Structure formats: structure tokens, C-alpha cells
Amino acid sequence: MRILFVFLLLLKTLFLSASGVAAISPSLTPVATGMENLENATPSATLSPEPIPSPRPDITQRTEETLGPLEKLLTDQQLGSVLPFNFIKYAIRGAVAAGVPANTIVLLLLLPGVAALIAATRHLIGLRGFGIFLPAALSVVFVATGPIVGIALFLVIVLVSILIRFILRKSRIKLQYLPRMALLLQFVVLGILGILFTAPFIRYPDLANVSIFPVLVLVLLAEDFSRVQLGKSAKVAINLTTETLILALFSFMFLTYKPVQQYALLNPELFILSILLVDFVMGKYVGLRLMEYWRFRKLIKR
Hints:
The chain is an all-alpha fold. It is 73% helix and 0% strand. The chain has one domain.
């Protein structure tokens, strides 16, 4: 009985294996033998190179992937009279008809919203960062390059800045501010070139399509980072840089959120008025920030 049980188990295993192969390769047929196999033989298969994935649509560039959906939204929208609430809608359509990219208009409409978002996180929550304009510009860099490439370039610039400052301090080489910044710019450019030179090996399309505009914005960030390093400490500079990165990521999600893009493009008047209202109400707030409530929680309890 034990042998019979083992035999049945073996048959079951073979049956499952055969059915699994058939399920994976249903087009396999019995192999011909003799001369039929030679006559019906097909040329050996050749391995085709793996296709490189196409880069993601970039809203900062004028491409069919980005212009098509936005212009279709404009053509599908029904408008009434020009005044009093549709004058910006008609102006947008006139500019698009004249050749202005619709994605450029969307980015310009969303930038005040990005500034309001950064101001809210700094004024109400307590995140600092390098001002308002640099995180906003960095968020546009993330839109252009993608967050992965943008963060990689961002970290390269930060590491190069820390390394150059450390080398100059250890070697006791004293330079004036402007020559020091010129030296830093040279090494930052070399670091970015080192990242770009890895494009043939990484085969990441967003890395191969990096333009000069994101690099220039990241160089501005390196200047602010070095200025804080010289005035305070490396720890403070790293904290401010990290908070700037967080603000830029939040702003990047805001810029790439399609419902917000569509609403700003189809209702520009309401969008602009709502941002003005948010800025005005937020500017009237004079209380503690959210992080300050946590920082001084022991004093507040007393």
C-alpha cells in the first residue's frame, strides 16, 4: 500500500508538472523526428535588444503628451460672455491660438498656489527652508527632471558643498567669498557631470533628458547652502536644505496633481481669487506655529 501511495503521488506530481508546462507554453507541439524535423526547422531565434523605456511626459516642455490633453480641455469647455467672469479664459484661448504652450500657462497659474502652499507650511506649520522662491523653483525642477533625478542631483550638490568646505577648512586654504563660490560652482558642475556620465550605464530616460534649466536652479541652491554654512554651521545648513527639499516635494505634488491643473486652466479667475483670499487670511494670523506648540508644550501647559 505504501508503494502504491508513493506511485500515485508521483503520478500526480508529473501530471501537475505537465499541466504547468502546458499552461505556460500552450503553443508547444510534439517535436517532429527524422527528416521532418530538419525540413520544418525554423531559423534560430535571435535576442532583440531590450527597448529603453520612453521618458515620462514633462509639463515644462512642449510635447504632444502634455499639450494634447490640456488643449482638449480648452476646446471642450463651453464659454459664455467675456465679461465679467470669463475674460482670463478668453485671453488664455487667444494666447494658445497664437502659439503659447498651454502647459506654460498652467505652470504660471499654479506658481502662486505653490507660493501660498510654501508660505502656509512655513507660517502655520513652522518649516523654514531657503525662502519661498527657491523651493518653488526646485519644485519646477522636479517637474522637469522627475523627483528621482532631481533628488539625486540635489544630494550631489549638497555632498559636494559639504566636501569642499571640509577640504578647505582642513587644508587651511583661505579664499574670499566670490572666488570660493566660483570654486564651489566648478566642483558642483563636475559632480553633476559625473551623474550625467552614468546615463549610458543606468539607462534611465529621465536622467538622459536633463536640460540646463534644472541644473542652474540647483546651482542657486548650492550657493544658498554654502552661504548658510559660512554664516552658521553645517548642521543648520543641512536642516534648512532638508526642509527645502520637503517643501519642494509637496509643491511638486501640487504642480503635478491633474485635478488642480485642470481646475486652474478651466477656472483661472476663481483660482486666482482663491489664492489671493488664502494669502490675505494667512497674513492676518499672528499666533504660534504648529511646531512651536510642540516645542513649547511644557510652557503652554503651565
